[in-house]
Amino acid sequence: MVDPQGFAHVRLTVTDIRRSKAFYQQLFGMPPGSDFSDQIDDPTIHDDPWRTYGGCSFTFHGQTLGLRPVAQAGDRFDPDRVGLDHLTLRVGSVDDLHRAAERLDQAGIVHGAVTDLEPFGLVILSLQDPDDINLVLAAPRPPDA
Predict the structure, then answer these.
(1) Could you tell me which residue ranges the VOC domain spans (predicted)?
(2) Which tens digits make up the pLDDT trace of 57-91?
(3) Digit-coded pLDDT (tens) for 105-122
(4) How far apart are CA 28 and CA 135, in angstroms?
(5) Residue among 78, 80, 104, 108 nearest 13 (CA)
(6) Of the candidates 130, 112, 97, 137, which has an alpha carbon nearest to the alpha carbon of residue 23?
(7) Which of 34, 58, 94, 132, by CA, is between 20 and 30 Å from 51?
């Protein structure tokens, strides 16, 4: 029926756009490409898809991760509800995962261990965003591992 070529974009619902934007900007090491978060206090922004509801987005390698600030303050992510379980971002190598772990440590961001998932051909590193959304960084498992 369809021959997917990857994802065009994924948008996460967040509670605090300033906090989430800062987190992802630090994680990715770049500012958002599209950003309407400075208009978040405009009462009409939450109804305006052209201004992405007051959100922002980060684009890398032809794919976009957007942040939509419409969740109620105090709401927390629940992977056991319908919708998103986790978001996995691909990185180039296992060395990239170890470098990411070091940079996360330096930034004071809690994360899991670099873990070899042999049956899946992946090595991963997990962390949580400010709304407790599980993010996974994944690299291909080296053939000689």
Answers:
(1) 6-140
(2) 999 888 899 999 988 889 998 988 878 899 999 99
(3) 999 999 999 999 998 899
(4) 12
(5) 78
(6) 130
(7) 132
